[in-house]
Amino acid sequence: MKNSILILLAVLILAACEKKEAPRYTQNSPEIDILKSGISHYNTKNWEAMAANFADTAKVYYNTKKSPISFKEVPAYHGQNDVNFSSRGFLDRDQDYEMVVTDKGETWVNFWGIWEGTLAADNRKIEMPVHLTAQFKDGKIVEEHGYWDNGPLIMAIQEIEAAEKAKSAAPVKLK
Questions:
Q1: Of 6, 41, 66, 78, which has the fewest Cβ atoms less than 10 A away?
Q2: 99 three-class SS
Q3: Residue 1 forms part of a structural domain
């Protein structure tokens, strides 16, 4: 009887001391909150606050696997695209976030959302599904990848440019 109590006590102590591991998959984490704040800062063009989410050595890959930019170049990257729009940003609806810890112990946060922009030239709305994935270390983004289809946007801008060119090339009627 005494041995049974000691064995039971030992099992309870071991069970209480068992180290709990962080979840390998979740939709609620501090890292997800950081990426959500980054989306919000993007929408408001608050580049300084957005930069605070990145490690100093972070690499950013937008629609590429080979040519990263530094997080310090991100405002200029977005700024050169923003000139075409009277408004732009991620819609609040249809957003999904998840955090995964890989077999290698890397922490990645994935985002899927809809980006919408209104072209300044003709008020045409462009919607693009976007996927972002960011690797985190010590609460900072160390690597970010963004993927979206620029095709509809490029076609719309080409149509606008062609219409402007045709307008300026139209012959002048003399009376």
A1: 66
A2: strand
A3: no
